[in-house]
Amino acid sequence: MRHEVRWERMFPDQLEAAFAECPVVYFTYGLCEPHGPQNAVGLDGLKAHALACETARAHGGIVAPLDCWHIHELSGYAAWAVKAVGEVQRSWLTSMPPWQHFKNVCYHLRTADALGFHAAVFVTGHYGPNWEDLNTLIGLVQPHIGTRLYSLPDWEANTPGFDSDGRSGGDHAGKVETSLLWALMPECVDVSRVPPEDEPGEHFAMGPTVRLSDRRVGERMVADEVHFLSKKTKELLAAYDREQPQHQLKTFEQVEVLWDTVVRPALKDFRSMQDLWQGQEPVPEDSVWYANWRVPERG
């Protein structure tokens, strides 16, 4: 029987024992969205959560419940979807705007700090500029939180990537993501669904390199990412021991104050709050992606 590390599946005594052994918590994020016909739509979160679980089983720590609600349908995400997903009737997205997602993350931070975790690692399997904004958020709030923090898109840990030259750290439903999910959760990948190479169409945001997917390469990438994440957690724990910080974020009111005074003023400059990314065209008014495309001045 595999060692249980998933918070929601553990008993209180198991949680206490795991905390005493290694006071690290992993928060994982993703999005249900089209990832080609060959992958389950929850690929982003499934791979991030599975990678965190593999790391915790091997090196200690507790993995928080997966958060599968993430940023999409607005800004550059909508412009990307016009070309990559197409004018579909149902996209099966579990999306929300940046100001809601990042406020949720602040409440996750509060849980880590209030429980006294020495370190917290935030892994997003959903790409686009949201991972840069997550890094910005962590930098903004770290001075106000005792728990030592680190955030990353999962491909940052994918070294050297799919290729030995390190050029394929991440993709979207191509050979990298498909191989990773294939290795981690083979029941969520069906390569027989990949259409013939000469068949036209968007194919639900399928990556152009998908036919190079390889489960064995995925297993090697998983091992690389587990090694990377374990190294980062050791660095965070060492920093905590060295600095002996005070845990400060304990109440809901403190989260709201942190949001209003530290995060919200900076939100307008987050990359996911910009209408378009470099090189993109505006979303056509007759597109299904037009309704939420423009970012309102709020947060």
Give an overview in words.
- It is a single chain.
- The chain is α/β, with parallel strands linked by helices and 299 residues long.
- The chain has a domain at 7-159 and 225-273: Creatininase (Rossmann fold), CATH 3.40.50.
- Helices cover 41% and strands 8% of the residues.
- The chain contains 8 helices and 6 strands; from the N terminus they run αβαββαβαβαβααα.
- It has helices spanning 12-21, 43-59, 75-84, 98-115, 130-141, 175-184, 215-243, 252-267, and strands at 24-29, 62-63, 70-71, 95-96, 119-124, 148-153.
- A 4-stranded parallel sheet has the order 2-1-5-6, with helices on both faces. Strands 3-4 form a two-stranded parallel sheet.
- Helix 3 links the parallel strand 3 (70-71) and strand 4.
- Helix 2 packs across helix 7, helix 4 (98-115) packs across helix 8 and helix 6 packs across helix 7.
- It is globular and about 60 Å long.
- It starts with 11 loop residues before the first helix and ends in a 32-residue tail after the last helix.
- The relative contact order is 0.19.
List the helices and strands and how they pair.
Layout: H1 12-21, E1 24-29, H2 43-59, E2 62-63, E3 70-71, H3 75-84, E4 95-96, H4 98-115, E5 119-124, H5 130-141, E6 148-153, H6 175-184, H7 215-243, H8 252-267
Parallel strand pairs: 1-2, 1-5, 3-4, 5-6
Helix pairs in contact: 2-6, 2-7, 4-8, 6-7
- Alpha-beta content class: alpha/beta
* Biggest β-sheet strands, sense, barrel: 4 strands, parallel
Estimated radius of gyration: 19 Å
Distance between the termini: 45 Å
User: Can you give the helix content as a percent range?
Assistant: 40-55%
Total count of strands? 6
Mean pLDDT level: 95
Order of helical and strand elements: HEHEEHEHEHEHHH
Unreliable stretches covering 5 or more consecutive residues: none
Proportion of β residues?
A: 5-15%
